[in-house]
Amino acid sequence: MHGGPRTVVVDDSRFMRGLITDILESGGVEVVAEAADGEEAVRVVAETDPDVVTMDVEMPRMNGIEAVERLMAERPTPVLMLSAYTDEGAEETFAALDAGAVDFFAKPGGEVSMGVSRLESQLVETVRSVAGADLSGAGERPAEVAAGSASTAADVAPNTTVVIGSSTGGPDAVERVLCDLPPDADIRVLVVQHMPEAFTGRFAARLDAACGLDVREATDGARVGRGEVLVARGGLHMEVSNYRDGRLRVRLVDEDRGQNVRPSVNVTMESAAREVDDPLVGVVLTGMGDDGSDGVNAIADAGGFVVAQDEETSVVYGMPKRAAATGRVGAVLPLADVAGGIVRGAP
C-alpha cells in the first residue's frame, strides 16, 4: 500500500522506466503510469492527474523540454527532470527549468542504472519534495521583480558581503535576487546552490548574462570584490579563507565536514562569519532540508543580518522554514522583496 505522491515516470528507455518505477515504489512512492515520450506523457498526465512527473530530457517525437511547456500551459504539474550529467545535459536542464520544471536529478555518467541505484534514497526524497512544490506563477516573471529593485548603490553599506543559500527551486530564485541588487553597489556575493559539478559552471554563466553583477563559478583561491559574485562549484564546499579591505578569498574543500550535501550553505556561512569583519548578510532561499540553519546562527552570532524567503513564494519551504525556526532571522520576505531586505538589513 502506497502513501506517497502519485507519480508518472517518463523515459524513452523501457529499462529505465522500470528501474525508476522500482526505486520509487520501494521508497513508498506510487507510480500510477509510465510514458515513453513527451506526447504520451502529456496524454497520460491528463488521464491520471498525478502529483508529480519524472521527465527524461532526450526522447523521440516530443522531448522533455517541449513536454514541460505543454504541461505548464495545459495542466500545470510539478516536474522533476532526469538529466544527463554532461555540459549538454546541463544546458537542456536549464531550458526545462525555464519552461517550468521544478528541479532536476542528475544521472551520473558511465553506467546510468548503477548510478541511479546508488542514489535511490535521494531520488525518492527529491520526488517527494517536488510533489509538494508550489507552482503558482510557474513560467511567469513578476513585473515587480523583472523591473529591478528600487534600492540604489547608495543604500548599501560599504563592503557588504552577502551569502545566499538555496536548493529546490533555487536557480530562478537566486537569479531574481541577484538581478534586483544594485549592480554598482559596494557588495560582494557568495552563492551556494545545491547542484552537481556539471551544472554549476553553466548556472554561473546564466546568472552573469542575466544580471548586472559579475558572476563566475568559484575556483580554489578565487578572490571576489565589489560587484562580483562567486557560485560554489558542485561537489566541493566553498569556504571564505581570507578577508581584507573589502576583498575576500575562497578555498574549495573536498571533505565531508559533517554535512549531507556538498556544497553546503552551512560551511560557507560559518566561514564567512569567522573571517568577514565588515557588514555581513545571510540569505536562505527555497529548498528542501535544513542546510543553512547552522550558518544562520553563526552569522547572527557574528553580528550579521539574516533574510529568509517566505513560505508563499518558496517552491519548497524547507530550508527557509528551518532557518526561521532558529529565531535568528531578521526578516522573512517574499522573493520580490529579498534584495531590498538585503540592502536595508546590512548592519
UniProtKB/TrEMBL annotation:
The modification 4-aspartylphosphate is found at D56. It catalyses: [protein]-L-glutamate 5-O-methyl ester + H2O = L-glutamyl-[protein] + methanol + H(+); L-glutaminyl-[protein] + H2O = L-glutamyl-[protein] + NH4(+). InterPro entries: CheB-like, CheB_C, CheY-like_superfamily, Sig_transdc_resp-reg_Me-estase, Sig_transdc_resp-reg_receiver. It is an enzyme of class 3 (hydrolase). One of its GO terms (molecular function) is phosphorelay response regulator activity. The keyword Hydrolase applies. SUPFAM superfamilies: CheY-like, Methylesterase CheB, C-terminal domain. CDD domains: CheB_Rec (cd16432), REC_CheB-like (cd17541). Pfam families: CheB_methylest, Response_reg. Residues 6-122 form the Response regulatory domain. The active site is at S167, H194, D291. Residues 158-347 form the CheB-type methylesterase domain. PROSITE patterns: CHEB, RESPONSE_REGULATORY. Its EC number is 3.1.1.61, 3.5.1.44. One of its GO terms (cellular component) is cytoplasm. PANTHER family: PROTEIN-GLUTAMATE METHYLESTERASE/PROTEIN-GLUTAMINE GLUTAMINASE (PTHR42872), PROTEIN-GLUTAMATE METHYLESTERASE_PROTEIN-GLUTAMINE GLUTAMINASE (PTHR42872:SF6). Contains a C-terminal catalytic domain, and an N-terminal region which modulates catalytic activity. Involved in chemotaxis. Part of a chemotaxis signal transduction system that modulates chemotaxis in response to various stimuli. Catalyzes the demethylation of specific methylglutamate residues introduced into the chemoreceptors (methyl-accepting chemotaxis proteins or MCP) by CheR. Also mediates the irreversible deamidation of specific glutamine residues to glutamic acid. Belongs to the CheB family. This is Protein-glutamate methylesterase/protein-glutamine glutaminase. The lineage of its organism: Archaea, Methanobacteriati, Methanobacteriota, Stenosarchaea group, Halobacteria.
